[in-house]
Amino acid sequence: MKNKLETIINGVKFKNPIIAASGCYGFGREYNELYDISLLGGISSKGLTLEPRQGNKGIRIWETASGMMNSVGLQNPGVHRFIEEELPWMRKHDTVIIANLGGSLIEDYIEGINLLNKTEVNMIELNISCPNVKTGGMALGIKADIAFEAVKLCKQASKKPLMVKLSPNAENIIEMAQACEAAGADSLSLVNTFNAMAVDVRNKKAVFNNTYAGLSGAAIKPIALRMVHQVCKNVKIPVVGLGGIYTLEDILSFIMVGATAVQVGTANFNEPNILPTLIQQLEQYCEEEKLNHISDIQGII
Questions:
Q1: pTM
Q2: Which end of the chain has less Cβ packing within 10 Å, N or C?
Q3: Active-site residue, selected from the candidate residues 130, 154, 232, 286
Q4: pLDDT at 237
Q5: What pLDDT sits at residue 136?
Q6: Cα within 13 Å of Cα(275), Cβ side
Q7: Which CATH number does 7-56+73-194+216-297 carry?
C-alpha cells in the first residue's frame, strides 16, 4: 500500500510528517520505553550547545492556562557527548535524526556544525533564539539582518541540510523568514516559545530566576498558526510548523496553511503516547478523505 504520509524535506525522507520537537523529547530514550520511536517521522534532539550546560537554577517548569512555561536554560550534554553517547543509540531506530543546535557565539555554532558534519545526523536545526553574547545578549533571531549573517556563515559550514528554527519574538516574522531563506537556509521551522512571565503572588516575586521564560502549549497555537501561514506565503523553501499541536485537527491546520511537516512538543508531557496516536489518526484521515497523499491538502488556505 502506498505510504500516503511519506514526506521529503531537503532530500531527507520522513516516513510521516510528524516530528518530535526539540526540548520536549530528550533523545527519545524515555519515550522508547512506552512505544517504538521508529514509528516517528523524525526526532529533533534536545537543544545542543558546543559545551555541556547545567541549565538554569530555580523553578524550570510552570503550568499556565492552556500551556506551559519553561526556563530550562538549554541543559544538555554538549555536542561531543551527544555524538559519543546519544547518537549511536538514536541511530539504532528507523527515524530521521535532526540535531538541534544553539549557542552564544557564532563561532560555537560553526564549531558544532563542523563536528555534526562528520556524523550520521540527517539534518541540523539551527536554534537562533539563544541569547547571543556579541549582540549584547539579544537573540540572533530577533533582527533579520543579524540572522542573515549568522545563517549565511552556518550554511557555508554545514554539509547537512540546514533547517532554521525561527523565534516568534522576531521583529517581523516574514522578513526574518525571507532573510534566512536568502542566507541559504534549506528549510524553516516555527515557532519557538514566546517570551512570557509568571508571578508568585504569595512570595511577591517572579516565579523564574531569570524573570522571563518561554511559553508553549495550546495557548500559542492560534498565533503560531498565523505566523506559519504568513511565512509559507512568502518563502519557497519547506516550512515545518509547530506551536500548540495536540490533536489531529491541529496537525491538519498547520498542513492546510502550508506546512510540509509538523513538530509536536509540549503535548508529549500531557500524554506521553500521543505521537503514535496522531500518526494513526493521520493515516485514517487520508483513507477517509480518499487522499492520494497528505500533501493534497498542503497550502489550501
A1: 0.96
A2: N
A3: 130
A4: 98
A5: 57
A6: 29
A7: 3.20.20.70
